[in-house]
Specification:
The chain is mostly helical and about 80 residues long. The protein is built from two helices and two strands, in the order ββαα. Strand 1 and strand 2 form a beta hairpin. It starts with about 25 loop residues before the first strand and ends in an 8-residue tail after the last helix.
């Protein structure tokens, strides 16, 4: 029986392709590296995350909490398209 450990495994080399131009003039890469085309929505998501993160029972897996908080806020968003 051959035994191997994780330290024997080769390191995976990841290739990150160069960022391509974004589809619309209003689009940009946010600090997390994702393409976003609505600055107001991006700011709302970031602000909501900061607000929820400070709640004691916060769980990073609770995406529904984030969606519900954004929906309840009912902030009218201007669409770029």
């Amino acid at each position: 029986m051959i035994m191997a450990s994780l330290k024997d495994a080769p390191n995976a080399k990841y290739y990150y392709p160069p960022k391509i131009t974004v589809p619309l003039p209003s689009c940009f890469y946010n600090p997390s590296g994702y393409v976003c085309c609505n600055l107001q929505l991006n700011n709302l998501i970031e602000d909501t995350f900061q607000e929820i993160k400070n709640i004691q029972e916060y769980s990073g897996c609770n995406i529904a909490k984030m969606a519900n908080t954004i929906q309840v806020g009912k902030v009218p968003l201007r669409s770029n398209f």
